Amino acid sequence: MQNEKNEVVVVDNYFTGSKDNLKQWFGHPRFELIRHDVTEPLLIEVDQIYHLACPASPIFYKHNPVKTIKTNVIGTLNMLGLAKRVGARILLTSTSEVYGDPLVHPQDESYWGNVNPIGVRSCYDEGKRVAETLMFDYHRQHGIEIRIARIFNTYGPRMNIDDGRVVSNFIAQAIRNEPLTVQAPGTQTRSFCYVSDMVDGLIRLMEGNNTGPINIGNPGEFTMLELAENVKELINPEVKIIHVENTPDDPRQRKPVISKAKEVLGWEPTIKLREGLPRMEEDFRKRLGIPRKE
Ligand SMILES: O=c1ccn([C@@H]2O[C@H](COP(=O)(O)OP(=O)(O)O[C@H]3OC[C@@H](O)[C@H](O)[C@H]3O)[C@@H](O)[C@H]2O)c(=O)[nH]1
Predict the structure, then answer these.
(1) Tens digit of each residue's pLDDT (9 = 90 or more) over 6-49
(2) The CATH number of the domain covering residues in 8-288
(3) What is the pTM of this model?
(4) CA–CA separation, 123 vs 263, rounded Å?
(5) Which of 166, 171, 221 has the most ligand 1 atoms within 8 A of CB, as the residue to mutate?
(6) Which residues carry out catalysis?
(7) Ligand 1 atom showing the smallest separation from residue 58 Cα
């Protein structure tokens, strides 16, 4: 992909994205950036569409839930309309949240999930579920080439420092010497995937022959308390860990089965949490202007 000389058009409304992350490409002859919101139709000519649009952090997607569902429903319809008009292949980044608060553990792609249809997370969970349905209906009805990835909690350099997801929160808190806020009960689990592994998985999925859905996530499973302890040990042994209230419908456990990704894409994650955290720390320290004390 890197040396394929593709032309890349990035479309962003900057609700959670930042131009700063793209500035290294400004002026490149095969790069183009459009300020656009996918809830409006987009008329361009492309061969492939990576449909990644939607805030992914719970605090951002719950901030304007109606907009979140519009992005997932109208935005996905617009991107599928574009794919249909120009005959492009389209990849949707769906989510492990389609499994809701899972009653099956770990989760494989055949599990239909346990999702609250009327809760505060539903705009995202149900939104992504409808987006998956739309993808398959366009595939069956119009023969569109589709790819669906179910992404598990992903982290890495260049993430918004105030994104609100747990890894970025803990790292920023540890660097600023603020207490790490473990939301109750602290025994809930997540599996954290490093960004470069995720990108590799998405490209393999786009270039391969399988429609998915395919889980792309790191099967290493940690409680939030364990994550906090790892961040404390690696980044700031002095920092305090405190317990704070949680928000409704927080899934109690989450871990991907990745045998399909291994078999179909030849993909498996290469970066373990304890390798990924220091890389993200380095990037956050640079951006916050707080060097490590030796
Ligand atoms: O400061 C914090 C933030 C979060 N948490 C906890 O950390 C856990 C993970 O929460 P996050 O906000 O990082 O996000 P979640 O894992 O719930 O969902 C995420 O993962 C799947 C992705 O597809 C979604 O984009 C995203 O919603 C939750 O149990 C939450 O209660 C803390 O303990 N402290």
Answers:
(1) 999 999 999 999 999 999 999 999 999 999 999 999 999 999 99
(2) 3.40.50.720
(3) 0.97
(4) 32
(5) 166
(6) 124
(7) 27
